[in-house]
Each structure stands twice: as C-alpha cells, then as structure tokens.
Design a protein that fits this description.
The structure holds two protein chains of two kinds. Chain A contains twelve helices and two strands, in the order H-E-E-H-H-H-H-H-H-H-H-H-H-H. By secondary structure, chain A is an all-alpha fold. In chain A, strands 1-2 form a two-stranded antiparallel ribbon. By secondary structure, chain B is an all-alpha fold. Chain B has helices at 2-36, 53-60, 62-95, 101-109, 116-129, 136-160, 164-172, 177-206, 209-214, 222-232, 237-259, 262-265. In chain B, helix 3 (62-95) packs across helix 6 (136-160) and helix 3 (62-95) runs antiparallel to helix 8. The radius of gyration of chain B is 23 Å and the shape is globular. Chains A and B meet through helix 1, helix 3, helix 4, helix 5 and helix 6 of A and helix 1, helix 3, helix 4, helix 5 and helix 6 of B.
Chain lengths: 283, 272
C-alpha cells in the first residue's frame, strides 16, 4: 500500500499509553533509589541503602520460594494441561471439544479472588477434602493443606491451567496430521505415534506454555496471600506488605524491580535454549 | 491380540486421566456452590440444612453494590479505550513500517510478562506523584495497560483474516483511503473488535492484583471488595457471590462459544 500520512495518527494513542506505562516503570526505578522516611509516604534523598537491604537472607529465601513454587506450578500445569489440550483439538465429537474447552477456560474469566476463595472451601480445615476424608473414616485428624506450599501449588496449577491449555491447543492444532498418518501407516502404534511424532512437534507450544506459566506464577498474588496466609510468601506478598503495612515504598520498589529483572533474565535464558533446541532438531 | 488389549487399556487410562483433570478443574466451583446454599455460617460438608439467605446478603451488601458499580465504570472505560488503542495500533502495525514499531509493540505487549504487582505499584507511585491517586483515572489507565495485549491479539487475528481484495476493489472504484477504512475495513473487523472488547471487559471486571494497589476506598472494585470481605468474615456470603460470578461467566462463555466460536477468538482453531 502507498504511504498515507493520515494513518500515522493511528499510532498516537498507542504512543501515549506506552509513555504512561514507561512513566510508571520509571516511577519504580526512581523510588528504588530514594531514602525511606519511616511513618511517611514522602521519600528522602537519593541513596543506595534499599539495595543493600536485599543482602538480608530473608529476602533471598522469599525469592527462592517464589522460584520453586513457579517451577512446580509450571511442571504440573504442563503435565495436566497437555492431555486436555490434546483431547480438545483431536476429539472427534464437537460436544467433547466444547465441554473440555468450557471447563478449562471458565476459570480464566472468573478471576483470582473467586477461584482462590473456592479453593479455601476445598482445602480448609472444615473444607470439602477434609470432610470427605474424615466422613469416610480414612483419616481421624484433618489434613493441614492451608498455609502450606502444597495447598498454594494446587491452587496455582488450577489458576494457570486455562492459559496453558490455550497455548498447547494452538500448538497441537498446527501440527500437520499427515505426519501422524504417515507414522501410523508405517505400523507405529498410536502410543508410539504420540511419543515420536505429536509430542516432539508440539515442542514450541510446550516451551512457550512453560515460560508463560512460569512468568505468570512469579507474579501470583491472591493465591499465596489467602491460601499461604502469611506462612507461604511470594515476592508479591512481601511487596504488598511493605507498601501497605509499613509504607516502605522505596524498598517495595527495589523488590519489584528485582522481580522484573528476574523475569527478563528467565525469558532470555529460555528463549536462547529454545533457539538451540530448534537448531538441533533441524539437523 | 495382546497389543490390542494393551492399546485399549492405555486408552481407558488416558480417558480416566482426562476425566480426573476435569474433576480437579471443576471441583472448586462445585464446592463453592454447595457452600453457598449452606444455612450455617460455618463451613461444613455436606450442609445440614439449605438456605438462600447468603445470596440475599451478597446482593444487598453495600460494599459489594458499590464495588459492582465501580467495577462496571472501570470496565466500560478501560475496555473501550483498550479497543480504540489496540485496533488503531494493530492496524498501523499490520499495514505500515515505521521507526520504533518493534519497540512500541514490545512495550505494549510486555504487561503479559511484567508482574502485575509491579504494574500496580508503578501506577500507584506515579499517581501519587501527579496527585491523582484518589480517582478513577489511574485505575482505568492501569486496566487499559493490562488488557491491551489481549485486545491486540484479537485484532491481529481478524486483520490477518481480512480479505485485502475487498480493499483493492473499493480503491479501484475510486474510494479514498478513509472511505476504504470506514466502509470496508471497519465492518469486516467488527466481529474481531467485539471479541476483543468482550475479552477486555471480562478481564478488567475481574482484575484484582494491580487493582488492589491503585484503588482507594472510593474507587474499590468488586474483586477488591470481595478480598476485603474474605479477610474480615468467614460466612458463605462470599460463596454466594462467587456462585453468581461462576454461573454468569459460564453462561457468557457458552453463548460466546455458540455464536462467535471461542476457538477462533482464542486462536486455537484456524479461522478461514
């Protein structure tokens, strides 16, 4: 198409919004270098002491816990999400497809609070699972699932499932079924076809699903806040606590900044390894 | 023969696994619905007696009512602005080369990976600096930033499926570029824009983490009001409002799937 200058105005709203977003990130960077004045929302002169505070082992362990929870969550979400995505794409009946689609993605639209609250009802002391186990006499004391990494992970996996399923389903639907038919005609059994053909060909979806869920879980807030109940803390919970309980916005800014950098580093590492993987599979 | 039996067993195992995952996904929703009808204020399964009083409580609770109105205000503004910004930008990206295009695109897509609490904290500090921390503006801007990547995806998909011959035909018949845009592109893109708008509206209405940072007592949205309720009370009022949420969302999605084809909106199925 020819150059039509008036279409350049189409980028103006986007530029304005991008500037607002950059300004908010700039505000965080600026605050991270300012001195915290206890009991006040105002900030003092430029200082590096917020960064020095990071050396405290408490913060190291919070970051480590956050990374581990994100790792467990992405692994389990992948393992449980793949069969769903596969059925959703490959089932012959439209009814099965729709059911799996609706069941997998409704949680995406009901929001963090509703979902997390629902898990409180399932995992709680008087919750569904404990009532079931005690009622059937399988246990004589309720299981402690609230305020544990296990409970938080169970809810986080549930929370991440819709995104994983959508990404994997897109990848699986792009696989040319001719490859599978070819393998099957060469007398590979269906399980072998899946392991040797379908699964390797869906690697891009697996990697991007894994990365997305990892990044997504790094920023989880409501789930660890309510199910972790202060016993299982992720970075977001500490940031919130610093901001709204002690009004230490400069240090909250430092922790947020570190979380963003961590995300960027992870994405770079994973993208580099995907590139490698793709190159290797070409040879 | 034995390989046939093995294959059949594997198949049944696979089906059982998938059913188990579906149960895991639906269990919380089912449990919360049962809890909502429990007459007692304390959680117990199965409930001894049933009642709908918590539903009455939920819809008459002033904080939920105010939160609902606030959430709708924010949702309408944010999703509409996001569609305008997303559609114009996606159109420009799809059609033209300009300097900084990749950078601008990266910045606007980055809220997908930047932690939400960081975005919330950033806009909170920014709003405090320009003295806007008490109003709706900062909430709306935060939501637009958060939902824009989803809107852009929807618009990209429908732009890619747009038949360019229609434009060429209109041009050949002497239509000006503006005319082509209004008479050809806009009507063809409308379903995609509507899908994007709906996506943005639902996400904005439910947004919690960043919203918790940027709302004050006056601008508190429904999810924030619900969070505050859970922290203060344990009665099933929350279960009742959650039930309303889940049922409405599921209905909306079933309708969307019937009429729009959710698979296409989410780009799972190839739209041709």
């Amino acid at each position: 198409m020819k150059r039509q200058p008036f279409f350049y105005w189409f980028t103006v709203p986007a530029v304005v919004l991008a500037l607002a977003f950059l300004a908010s990130m700039g505000a965080i960077i600026q605050y991270s270098f300012r001195k915290h004045i206890p009991g006040s929302l105002d900030v003092g002169p430029v200082t590096l002491e917020n960064f020095e505070r990071l050396a405290h082992p408490l913060y190291f362990s919070v970051y480590l816990d956050t990374l581990l929870l994100s790792l467990y969550t992405s692994v389990f979400t992948l393992v449980l999400g793949y069969p769903l995505a596969y059925v959703m794409v490959r089932a012959r009946s439209r009814w099965i497809k729709s059911t799996v689609l609706i069941v997998s993605i409704v949680p995406l639209f009901t929001g963090e609070i509703v979902r997390t609250y629902a898990w409180l009802n399932v995992l709680g002391h008087n919750g569904f699972i404990n009532s079931l186990l005690l009622g059937t006499g399988l246990l004589d004391r309720p299981l402690q699932m609230m305020f544990t990494p296990f409970g938080v992970t169970v809810a986080l996996v549930h929370f991440s499932m819709p995104i994983m399923v959508v990404i994997l389903a897109a990848a699986i639907s792009h696989i040319d079924t001719d490859y599978e038919k070819a393998a099957a005609s060469l007398s590979a059994n269906p399980i072998k076809v899946f392991w040797k053909v379908t699964l390797p060909l869906s690697t891009p979806g697996i990697v991007s699903g894994f990365v997305t869920i990892f990044a997504w879980t790094l920023s989880a807030f409501a789930t660890p806040q309510l199910i972790g109940g202060g016993k299982v803390n992720m970075v977001s919970n500490i940031v919130y606590q610093l901001g709204f309980a002690s009004f230490n916005f400069p240090f909250a800014a430092v922790l947020s900044l570190l979380a963003v950098m961590l995300t960027i580093v992870l994405l770079l590492v994973i993208y580099a390894s995907t590139r490698r993987l793709e190159k290797m599979s070409l040879h | 023969m034995s390989s046939g039996i093995r294959w059949r067993m594997a198949r049944w195992l696979g089906i059982a696994f998938v059913v188990a995952i579906l149960v895991y996904l639906t269990l919380p929703a089912v449990v919360v619905m049962i809890a909502a009808f429990n007459e007692k204020a304390i959680l117990s399964f199965p409930p001894e007696s049933y009642s709908v009083k918590w539903f009455v409580n939920a819809v008459t609770y002033p904080d939920f009512q105010k939160g609902f109105v606030n959430a709708v205000i924010v949702m309408l503004w944010a999703s509409t602005i996001a569609v305008v910004v997303g559609a114009t930008f996606a159109f420009a990206v799809d059609r033209f080369r300009f300097r900084g295009k990749a950078l601008l695109e990266a910045i606007l897509m980055s809220p997908l990976v930047v932690p939400k609490f960081t975005i919330g904290l950033g806009f909170l500090i920014l709003a405090a600096q320009v003295d806007m921390s008490r109003g709706f503006t900062v909430v709306v801007v935060t939501h637009v930033v958060l939902v824009l990547p989803f809107v852009m995806r929807c618009v990209y998909v429908s732009l890619r499926n747009l038949d360019r011959d229609m434009e060429r035909a209109a041009e050949a018949l002497g239509a000006s570029p503006l005319m082509v845009l209004i008479k050809i592109d806009l009507p063809l893109l409308l379903p995609g824009l509507f899908g994007g708008w709906m996506f943005a509206a639902i996400l904005s209405f439910n947004e919690f983490t960043a919203t918790l940072f940027v709302t004050g007592a006056r601008t508190e949205t429904l999810p924030v009001a619900m969070y505050n309720y859970v922290r203060e009370f344990v009665d099933p009022t929350m279960a009742a409002i959650s039930t309303i949420f889940i049922v409405l969302t599921a209905l909306l999605l079933i309708v969307a799937d019937r009429f729009l084809g959710l698979g296409k909106v989410l780009a799972i199925e190839e739209g041709r």
